[in-house]
Amino acid sequence: MAQTNSPAPQYQAPTEVAPDIFLVPIPIPIPLRYVNCYLMRGPAGWTLVDTGFHDQLAVDAWPRAFADLGIRPQDIDQILLTHYHPDHIGAAGWLQQWTGAPAYMHDVELRQLELFWGEGMAPQVERLVAFFAAEGMPAEMAQAIGHHHHQQFDLVQPLPTLTPVPTGARLALGRGQYEVIHTPGHSDGLAIFHDSQTGILLANDMILAKITPNVSVWPGCSPNPLVQYLASLEKVEQLGARLALPGHRSMIADVAGRAREIADHHQERLEKMAAATRVDPTGATAWQVTERIFRPEELTIHQVRFAMAETLAHLVYLVEQGRMVKDGNRYREQ
């Protein structure tokens, strides 16, 4: 298994990426190295969007970002959380305690948060370990992934007190009015936030520049997330957004074009997944396909978890489309 020996990511000062919207790259202890958080200046205070993990990297970075922008903790008017993944919500409870600000999340995503980080976490991890093992992953690897999830628990504590927001609501964020748009696929309740007046899209991990968001099958969640994600990409393409502020890496000016590129990527990935099952006439397990596509021996345990779950998302999609069948835990073309 690959080890991460690169130096820890360093603090980067906020930069203005749109009028009164500042990118705050919070260092994170995973290969992506930074999560894009945002501070949005409004007439009555600031909106903080996403948080990083609750670790020393974030605890050191946020006060420095506030100081760089001349923000006091009490100037934070609200905290917006785009989805439940720990690099986006981990420090939310700590930031809420520090600022006293209310925190908001799409109502569908609240179930995901509870399932993976609340009282439902322990049984969910057990289901995940059993699920991966049943799909051909070696038991030792599956157990290591379960252990890794438990290790991340402290990085999301304390959980914030959350106020749900529904699809279609309009939120005052900074100086804009943003529509809440449900775009499942990367997670079941992931939402994006679009200001039709400025064309600014808070895209979080719905679309990313140069890399593609992970689309994964998890037990107890959407059984076919890729079909949802492809539909969400169509929705993004049709929005008319002029600038997407993503959850990682660089800003996206050609929003519709990038959505099309990601959709094309998944069609190519589906063909590679199908080809990977043809090595043996009896087909292949999801783990065997993962080995052939992603080379898990070169990945961290964090990356192996997502590689396996993304493989399953593509194989499930192919089965649902009638292009493949599943016999036991083996997938083969019709």
Defining traits:
10 helices; 334 residues; seven-stranded mixed sheet; Metallo-beta-lactamase, Chain A; alpha/beta
Explain the overall architecture.
It is a single chain. Strands 1-2-3-4-5-6-7 form a 7-stranded mixed sheet. A 5-stranded mixed sheet has the order 8-9-10-11-12, with no helix packed on it. The protein has a 3-stranded antiparallel sheet with strand order 13-15-14. The chain is globular and about 65 Å long. The model has no long low-confidence stretch (mean pLDDT 96). It is α/β, with parallel strands linked by helices and 334 residues long. α6 crosses α10 and α7 (225-237) runs antiparallel to α8 (255-276). The protein has helices at residues 56-69, 86-89, 92-99, 109-117, 121-134, 139-152, 225-237, 255-276, 286-294, 301-320; strands at 15-18, 21-27, 34-41, 46-49, 76-81, 103-106, 162-165, 170-173, 176-182, 191-195, 200-204, 243-246, 284-285, 324-327, 330-333. Helix content is 38%, strand content 22%. The chain is built from 10 helices and 15 strands. The chain has a single domain (15-265), classed as Ribonuclease Z/Hydroxyacylglutathione hydrolase-like (Metallo-beta-lactamase, Chain A), CATH 3.60.15.10.
In a nutshell, what does this entry contain?
The protein has helices at residues 56-69, 86-89, 92-99, 109-117, 121-134, 139-152, 225-237, 255-276, 286-294, 301-320; strands at residues 15-18, 21-27, 34-41, 46-49, 76-81, 103-106, 162-165, 170-173, 176-182, 191-195, 200-204, 243-246, 284-285, 324-327, 330-333. The protein has one domain: Ribonuclease Z/Hydroxyacylglutathione hydrolase-like (Metallo-beta-lactamase, Chain A). By secondary structure, the protein is of the alpha/beta class.
